[in-house]
Each structure stands twice: as C-alpha cells, then as structure tokens.
Amino acid sequence: MQTSSENNPGSGADGGRWTRRNFQSWLNRGGADTLREIAPIATLVILVIIVGIITPEFLSPNTLLTLAGDTATLFVLAAGVTFVIMLGGIDLSIEAVASFCSVVVAMTLPAVGYLSFVLGMLAGAILGLINGLVHTRLKIPSFIATLAAMGVWSGVALVITDVKPIQIELKNGFYLAWIADKTLGIPNRVLIGIVVLLGCLFIQRYTRFGRYSSAIGAGEEATRASGVNVDRHKIIAFVISGALAGLAGVMLSGIMSGGSARMADNLLLPTIAAVIVGGTAITGGVGSVWRTVIGALIISVVRVGMQFVGVDVFAQQIVFGVMLAVAVAITIDRSKIPIVK
Amino acid sequence: MNPTSSPNGKPVLSASHINKSFPGVHALKDVSFELHQGEVLGLVGENGAGKSTLMRVLAGVYAPDTGELRMEDDIIHLQSPNDAAKNGIGMVFQEQSLLPNLSVSENIYLGYEDEFMRFGILQWKKLHAAARRQLEKVQLDIDPSARTSSLNFAARQMIELAKTLTLEERTDRHLIILLDEPTSVLEQAEIDILFERVRALKQRASFVFVSHRLDEVLAISDRVLVMKDGKVVANLSNDDGLDVHQLHQLMVGRDLQAEYYRESQQRPYDETVVLEAENISLSGAYHDISFQLHKGEILGIAGVIGSGREELCRTVFGFFTPESGQLHVAGKPVHFKSPTDAVRHGIGYIPRERRTEGLVLYLSVASNITLAGLRKAMHNGLIDYERESGIAREWVEKLSIKTPSIRAMCLNLSGGNQQKTVLAKWLNAESKILILDHPTRGVDVGAKEEVYVLVRELSNAGVSIILTADTLEETIGLSHTILVMRDGVITQRFDASSGHKPQQLQLIEYMV
Hints:
The structure holds 2 protein chains of 2 kinds. Chain A has helices at residues 20-54, 61-86, 94-112, 115-137, 142-161, 177-180, 188-206, 208-218, 220-224, 230-256, 268-277, 289-309, 316-331, and strands at residues 166-167, 182-183, 186-187, 258-259. By secondary structure, chain A is an all-alpha fold. Chain A has a single domain (36-331), classed as ABC transporter involved in vitamin B12 uptake, BtuC. In chain A, the strands form 2 sheets. In chain A, strands 1-4 form a two-stranded antiparallel sheet. In chain A, strands 2-3 form a two-stranded antiparallel ribbon. The relative contact order of chain A is 0.17. Among the domains of chain B are: 13-88 and 171-252, P-loop containing nucleotide triphosphate hydrolases (Rossmann fold, 3-Layer(aba) Sandwich), CATH 3.40.50.300; 258-346 and 432-511, P-loop containing nucleotide triphosphate hydrolases (Rossmann fold, 3-Layer(aba) Sandwich). In chain B, a hairpin with a 3-residue loop joins strand 13 and strand 14. Chain B is globular. At the A-B interface, helix 8 and helix 9 of A face helix 10, helix 11, strand 20 and helix 14 of B.
C-alpha cells in the first residue's frame, strides 16, 4: 500500500532553496498550471498600464471601446480555433475561410438580403466540415489538411472575384447596421463577440462535445478506448472553427461594406497567437475560450499600443510572430512531449 | 554488507543495497549481488518482480535512490547510458535500437563517427572495415554496408551484440553486457547460435541475461538470481542440479495461496451466455476461435506472447474486426467496427497500457470516471456537475480510491489507485462484460489484492470477465474457466472452479 510520502513527490527536496530543481518540481506539482492561469491576465493588466502611461488618451472610454470592437473579429476567429487546438489539432485555413465567406456575403446580399449572412456562416461550416472529413477520413495531419484548404479556398475566392473587391452598394447599407452600428454606445461587434463567448463557454462546459474535446486533447488513446467516437468530435471541432471563421467573414464584410479574397489577410498569425498567448496549450488538452478572450485582448492592446507609439502596420507582424514563439516556449509542458517535431 | 571474495577472484561488478521507487511502487528493495569475470548471470522473476528496473539501473537509465554500484574498487555513479558505456556496461535492448534506414556500419558506430572523420568527411572504407572487425567477433558474415532493414531479426540481434562489443575498445574496465529478453522473438536455431556466441564471448565479457523462458536461463547461465516483488529471493549456482520447477517455485514464492485470490468466495456462474465467439479468425493473430462467456463467469486466457490471446481480447473490444466468423452479444450477432460499438453493447476494457489507454492522465479523477458513461452525469442533455461529483464521490468511496480530491489529476495517483479509477469508469458505464488485460501490471502487492477482491465481487454481482493475467498463478486463482492458446488456436479448455483448480504445469504443457 502507498504511504503518505508517495502522495507528495518532490516535497522536502533541497531544504527549500529556490534552485532549478526546486522550480522544476514546483512546476511538476501543478505550479505550471497556476502560472498558465495567472500569466495571461497579469500580462494584459501590465500592458494596459504601460500603454496608458506612455499615452494617457489610450485609457479614454472611447479608445477602449474601439479597442474592444477591433478585438471582436479577432476573438470570433480565435474562439473557433480554440476548440481545434484544445483537441490537439490546428486549423490554418481560417483566414482563407473568413475571406471566402466575406465574398459569399458580398455576392449574395443584393439578391437575398439578410439571408446572405446565414449563407456566409453556412459556407464556413461546410468548409470546416470538409477540413474535418479530410483530416479524419484520409488520415492527414490537420496541419497539412488545413494548409491545403487555405490554398484551395483563397484560390477559389480569388478566381470567382476576379481578384477584385466586391463593394456592397450604399442602398443596401442598412443590412449591415447590425454589425457596423452601435447600441447604447457599444459597438455591435462587441455584442456579437460577447454572444459568441457565452455560446462557446456553454459548449465547452456543458456539452458532451466540450468534455470529449479536452479529453481527446489530453489523451486521445484513452478517450478512444473509453468508447468515445473521437473522429466525430474532431469533425465537430472543425465545423465550429469553420462556422466562426464564416461569422468573422460576415463581420468583416459588414465593417468594410464589401467582400474580398484578401479580406482577412494577416489575421492568421495574430489569431493563433491570441489562442496561445491566452494559455491554451498548443499540445492540446489544456485550454479555454475564456483564455482566448484574454489572449485576443492582449494582441489588440499590443496592436493599438504600437499604433499609438507609431510602429508601422506591417512591422506589427514581427511582434506577433515573436509573441507566438515566446508564448509557446513558456506554456508548453515539455514533460508531456519528449520529442518535438 | 561485506562483499566477500568468490573463488573466481574479485567481482567485476557488485551492487549493494540498491533501492528504487516510482510513484506508488517500490520497484527494487535492497538488491545486492555480484557479477564475476566471464560469468553469465541469469535473472528471473515474474512480471513486475523488478528485473527490468534492475537492468535499467545497471544500464544507467535510472539512478538508484539508495545503494551503490562498485566496479573493481571504485564506486561508480551512472547518470546516463553514456556513463554506463564509459564503464564498459552495454545493453542489448529488448526492442531493437538499430535504425532501419542506416547501414550496418553506421548503426554499429552511431555516435562515434568522429573516429572515422578526416577533414570533416566520413571515411566510409575505414568505417566498413572497422564494422567488419566487430561483426567477426560475433561471427556474422554480412556486408557492413547493407541497409539494416534488409536483414532478418536474428541478424539484427547479432548486430546489436556487435555494437555493444565496440565498448571494449573504449573502456579500461571489464566489459559487461546486459541481455534483456534477447530470445523472445528468435527461433530455436537462432537461439542456439546466440548462445554459442555468448559462450564464445565469455572470455571477453560478463553477461547478465534476462528471459522468461526458464529452460533457456538454465541452459546459458552460470548462476541464477531470482527476484520477487523487487527483492532478490535466491542467488543460486547453476551446477547443483537446479531445475525449472525449483526456479518457478522461488519466483512465485509461495505455494498457491487460495485465499489470496478469494477462492472461497468464488461462486458458480449463471448459465446464461452473454458473449459468444463462433469460429472467428484474424490472419496473423488467431484462427477458428470459438468460446462462450457466461453471466458472472471469469474466463482466463493463458498463452505466451504471440499466442494470439492479446489480439483476441482486443477483438472483443472492437479494436480489430475478425475476418471470418461471428461474435454474439446476448444472443444477437454483432459487428464491432470500433470500441465505440463495443461500449454501446456493454463491454468495458481495462487495458495493459493503463497510462495511455486506461486513463486520460491530465484529466481529473471525476472526468475519467464519467468518461465512458457520461450520460449518467448529464441532465436534459447537458453535463450536470453536481451529478458528476456525486457519481465520482460514490465510486471513490466504494472502491476506496486514494486521491486528494475528485478534481485532482489522475497523473498523481499510484498505480493501484489509477487502476481502480479505470474500473470505476466501467462500473459507472454499467458494463456487463469486462475485459481485463493484465489488470495488476505495475500495481503494488497490497493493491493487487484489492483488485482481486473487486474482481471477485464483480463476478458475484453478475459481471462477466475475460482475463489475461500477468502470471499463471493469477489466471488459475481468479478464473472459473481457462482457455489455453498456442500459435493462434485454443489448445485446451480447463475447468478452474473452486476445488478443481488445475496446476500451472498442466497449463504450461498446452502453452509451449
């Protein structure tokens, strides 16, 4: 039988000196989870304070609301990918899918009106379903399946638009009010983002799919051997990711009054960065849409902060790239993955 | 302890009071022994007796918690396999460590290419010539530039041995070679060749030889070390009429203690057939298998590695689909395409690989318990956390699972408590048929007994069980009926009801 000391591995080592070994054993005892929990919120608060000190006008309600509005699209994209990353996969096609769906909205809106937004999201869900089927049925790593999909759908969008943006005419502009306008001073995009957040948190916490997706990410073999239909839940994750990418495309078409095959360009990197910076592990199992909100806000604060400081828009990708790599390096639990490929 | 001199002079390696623990398991308890020059030391014991752990300590893979290793007069500290190699200790691995896409020469000198470099360029001729010299030591006549994957298993095993022998050029110490079950996949003729080479190499090296086949151990060893539950229980010279039976007695350590397996509580099973296999076959695994499993019956399947019993168990759980024949559950024909189908028919599986297939280690105890039967923790189609906690608390209490809380990760539980969590998962899913694949592997002695009690209670409550156990003793002690398999077919069926238990040797007769 076990003794009590076996329940406390690593306790009492090295007389409490803060050595590398002690730190490692603290990490192993669950300290890593505590760190992963606190670090993103702490980062967000510190960033807001720093940018606020440099440029006090950043803290005005107006700027903050604009910031929240800018974050909404990024968050909606990132919320969908969070499910895929949680179960150990990745979806690189979201940028292309969002652009494609903005084209769908812009092309169909004159004919079908509000229905075009439904078609946009539906198109995203279908593309996500295709991703899921290719990944599970053909047994192609999700990284490759969605990379291929990215090429295919951005190509299709380019071809059908003849590489030109499609404008939504001014007379149809009222269709876009639910996206672009404000309600009681709050940008509607922020409200859409909040609805998505609540929906995702609900799915994650209270549904079979939510439970199984974190189980699959933490231990796919054991989950399969518990009788869970792993492939089905992977497909569901890709459908959600695709549908939310579609919604992001819809939101973009509303903000920009049009659709284009390049609409969501440069959003992939900050989106994945938002998920990871928020503390969802790239290796799966650990994560939450709630963390993704924090991650998306961090990305936005950095983005807006850089604008205030006067960093070129194109140079911002440098920062997001570095942030992504650093966040993965900090959050990854190497004891779980002996070999990184 | 004072290591005493033996007639052959000083030992080349002496281990004293070695202890090694893993979370929940005390794997080596105060192990001491000596290895002499030119000696083959056989190491035997049941699964979980500590053989592999001891080998890994000697090979530098694990550092012992306490105790010391001495070579000649020096105390040595092995922190890595590299340290072991520097001290002339090499291991021939059970799972072969050769890289199939490289040539034989490259494999033999993997990590030591510097010796053949000139101005940063590898001198292939020199490398192949050196490799050929190593191959001569084991009398293997093959082209050293051949791709390793083109060679058969026995040849690859010899290459492993040759690779280990390169150590003698890199150390001043006496060479020690650890052979970890090198014969498990060899044919008899190949085993004879291996033994002949080992005997020839005794002037160059000392050997530690681990095998499950006791007759082989007796054939090759000068001395035999018997381990049980992490302790050395006997250290015998192999010249005074040692026989297989004697070794086996020592390994098991007790004559069958009926009460250990709660035999007195074994009740006759119900005559209702819950599962039936009708002439099922899977090529390369088993052929024309038929059996019936009754309500409350414990059906033990005995057989060596390669007998097909593992594949048979995994077929019943839907990992494999039989190519011909028919499975029936509760009288109805079934076709399992995946474990999902099997679980839907009330079948549960307690796998041998508990840490990868049994539990999601990074998920809480509660989530693991409800994983296979989540619907019981749901209300109106949604997960009800209070309900889930209630279920988890109930099982933690019933099976006395020791965990800091029901929301603690399974990772931190001991082997026995993890295994009970796996059991709780299937009990919550209301499985009527349980497949127990080595249910006591990596579980401490005390916790084993608890598992036996649970298995007995489940059987008496009407759950049917298919058991493949670590030891014959366990199979005999627990089962109502025993099927013996060899080379993919059932060779004998034994009634093992209380009072009619067959002897181990009776089973072995049909296993080999």
